[in-house]
Design goal:
The protein has one domain (2-155). The chain is 35% helix and 14% strand. The protein is built from 5 helices and 6 strands, in the order αββααααββββ. The chain has a 4-stranded mixed β-sheet with strand order 3-4-6-5. Helix 2 packs across helix 4.
Length: 156
């Protein structure tokens, strides 16, 4: 999910969830977390246990109850897929990788999210193909979105 960070603000703004670098309301914030999960998984069914990283990236408290007021729409799912396609298009090292390929290789990865020295740390299980991460046109070691109070450090 952290590889999407340069695209997340536009994605959420385009869906009307963010205005002027802030979420329009608490429901939009929670919906954004759900839609980030939809983007990385391609699935509309979302369980609470799948959301910790998405909640952190959207500034939602981890203990906040996950409930959507409406199911994920076709438009939201299409926009989530379009964001993944944009990532592939902007990272030449990925070549002709498919949306499913990016999801399976880089986005749906085992990892651990915890607090270290007062800041978020995401430790992602390393894979041999991670060597291409150094050739991405954006960094994948720190994530700080406009509405986040603290950045997330990522260790691959």
């Amino acid at each position: 999910m952290v590889l999407l960070w340069p695209f997340i603000p536009f994605f959420l703004r385009h869906l009307g969830l963010v205005e002027e670098r802030r979420f329009v309301d608490a429901e939009a914030q929670l919906r954004a977390a759900a839609l980030l999960r939809v983007a990385v998984s391609g699935e509309r069914e979302i369980a609470e246990y799948q959301l910790p990283l998405a909640k952190v990236l959207c500034g939602v408290e981890l203990d906040a109850l996950f409930e959507l007021d409406a199911p994920v729409s076709d438009e939201e799912e299409a926009e989530a897929t379009a964001m993944i396609e944009a990532v592939i298009a902007r990272a030449p090292i990925l070549g002709r990788m498919s949306v499913a390929g990016l999801r399976g290789s880089f986005l749906l990865r085992p990892g651990a999210l915890r607090v270290r020295d007062g800041a978020w740390l995401l430790q992602v299980e390393r894979q041999s193909f991670d060597v291409v991460l150094d050739r991405f046109p954006w960094s994948s070691s720190w994530v700080k979105l406009p509405w986040m109070d603290e950045p997330v450090q990522v260790e691959w």
